[in-house]
Amino acid sequence: RIRANAIAILTVAWILGTFYYLWQDNKPPSTPSSASQIRGRGQRQRGVPGRLEVHREDRTIPLIVTQPPQAEQQVQLLVGFDEKAYLAAKQLKPGDDPYKEHAFNLQESDHLGGERAIRDTRHYRCASLTYDADLPSTSIIITFHNEARSTLLRTIKSVLMRSPAALIQEIILIDDFSSDPEDCQLLAHIPKVRCLRNSRREGLIRSRVRGANTASASVLTFLDSHCEVNTDWLQPMIQRVKEDHTRVVSPIIDVISLDNFAYLAASADLRGGFDWSLHFKWEQIPIEQKMARSDPTQPIRTPVIAGGIFVMDKNWFNHLGQYDTHMDIWGGENFELSFRVWMCGGSLEILPCSRVGHVFRKRHPYDFPEGNALTYIKNTRRAAEVWMDEYKQYYYSARPSAQGKAFGSIADRLTLRRKLNCKPFRWYMENVYPELRVPEQEAVFSVLKQGGLCLETRGTDGLGLADCKATRPQQQKWELIEPLIQQQDLCVAISAFTAGSRVKMEPCNSKEPKQKWKPKGMALQHMVSGLCLDSQSLTGSLIITQCRPQMASQSWEPQLIT
Ligand code: LR7
Ligand code: MN
């Protein structure tokens, strides 16, 4: 009897335990009001379309939650700093809109206070990786303008709690002329924390450069002012930079819900990309790379970084020209840095075993002295003009309003590019971001006129001259897409490379030497033979002859068909 009872009790306890475990797993990691919990997940965030894929992956450990440090350790961490007073001094008044000041729910953030446990969102294999015992230490650089005290403090405390103490040389705060100087100054009472205040609003780019210039460690780590770093976030990044100082590395950026502050794991197979308007977006790793990834802890090459959270060797940062300090307030600097790193001999990667949470917002909670749109255009125009070579035309077609807008002098940055002997943007397109498609040029049709006559196709593959008011105008309609002279799927081609050879139509192939032409004065020269398209032949078909552009039979005047 007794044994049977014991077994029954154990069985019930086991079932209850299992249910509790599953229930825990489905709960969001933090416990704010439940009504708003679901909303944060699928929401479209500004600039983060890829974040639609944000989900909890079953490949990651579901239940392990970082342990908050022991009470004694906390006292150690923040000795000399009155956390309660710091947070209490700024409280939301009843009836105030909690989203107004910061574009996130301040009430939920304040409710969490200076620290909290978050789920370890890494792939389980990350936990067994090891790192060098002698990693160099880093200076953490955080710029902010009117950040909420609770988010700023959690950023700092999460760094102190979840990093090996020896790796944190210092935390440099750059207060970008926030309304209340005490937001920053009081935090300098925390050991290792320094506070620099700008005497006027500079924007995040010049602020970061200021921080980097006073940093004393050999490695720089940049963070936004509303982050929470996760378990062992720092070691993977410093390790990669120690092994090769030209690598610039960033973590997977998890999502902290702007509504309820739930910490949500981001998808582990995204990288940074952009479209021709220089709009940043998260995108899936190309399928071939995804297939080739047998080890989920391996770095992911990325064409661009999001911009806010990365680790870079300080000498490399300085050698490559820091940032373009003529960029203002916010935006575009991540493209400029990314192009520069790749084109001037470095690389960019995302490290899946490093995770940092960030509060993604849908609007800027601060003002732009020159307006949001003009500032973004100025900054991205500078990036395009300095780094994108002939590809900048696609930027201007995608963002016509950028044309004619002021962007200052770029002479210094062009000099820098020359001095560093950087590769052309074409190289970047071919080797780093071949997935970025060059836009299809809109078809432009012309007739090719010789005197009063027009070039036209005849029969299956022939060419000839006829009255321009032909009965079948389709056969006189040409697309001049250098080096091809094209009509539908057929292109003008020579039949042999010698003078007098017949010219005919054949299926287009831009790699076929027989089809390559370029304009030479009024004539059309075959690029390989050097001979010119000529209408003067005994048979009435077209041929190639020695170029004499003055000659009427070699003169082809393109005239747009409107
Ligand atoms: O005038 C300003 N001065 C500042 O110091 C304006 C802003 N800032 C600070 C601000 O307090 C914050 O710490 O700069 C940081 C970034 O500004 P956010 O958080 O308002 O903007 P964001 O999160 O959209 O910023 C992303 O894009 C920026 C483009 O210039 C920067 O590259 C940010 O670092 C970048 N943030 C991230 O990459 C984190 C992940 C988000 C993504 C994608
Ligand atoms: Mn941010």
Question: Can you characterise this structure?
Answer:
- The protein has 562 residues and is an alpha+beta fold.
- It is built from 16 helices and 24 strands.
- Strands 13, 14, 15, 16, 17, 18, 19 and 24 form an eight-stranded antiparallel β-sheet that branches. The chain has a five-stranded mixed β-sheet with strand order 3-2-1-4-11, with helices on both faces.
- The termini are far apart.
- The model is unreliable at 24-67 and 69-73 (pLDDT under 50).
- Ligand LR7 binds next to strand 1, helix 8 and helix 12.
Strand and helix map with partners:
Layout: H1 2-26, H2 39-42, H3 71-77, H4 83-88, H5 106-112, E1 138-144, H6 149-162, E2 168-175, H7 182-185, E3 193-197, H8 204-214, E4 219-223, E5 227-229, H9 234-243, E6 247-256, E7 263-264, E8 270-274, E9 280-284, H10 287-292, E10 300-301, E11 310-313, H11 314-319, H12 333-343, E12 347-359, H13 372-387, H14 392-398, H15 411-419, H16 425-431, E13 445-450, E14 453-458, E15 462-467, E16 478-481, E17 484-487, E18 490-494, E19 503-507, E20 517-520, E21 523-526, E22 532-534, E23 543-545, E24 557-560
Parallel strand pairs: 1-2, 1-4, 2-3, 6-12
Antiparallel strand pairs: 4-11, 5-12, 6-7, 8-9, 10-12, 13-14, 13-16, 13-24, 14-15, 16-17, 17-18, 18-19, 20-21, 22-23
Helix pairs in contact: 12-13
Bound molecules: ligand LR7 and manganese (II) ion.
The site of manganese (II) ion has 4 residues, from loops.
Cofactor: Mn(2+)
Subcellular location: Golgi apparatus membrane
Pathway: Protein modification; protein glycosylation
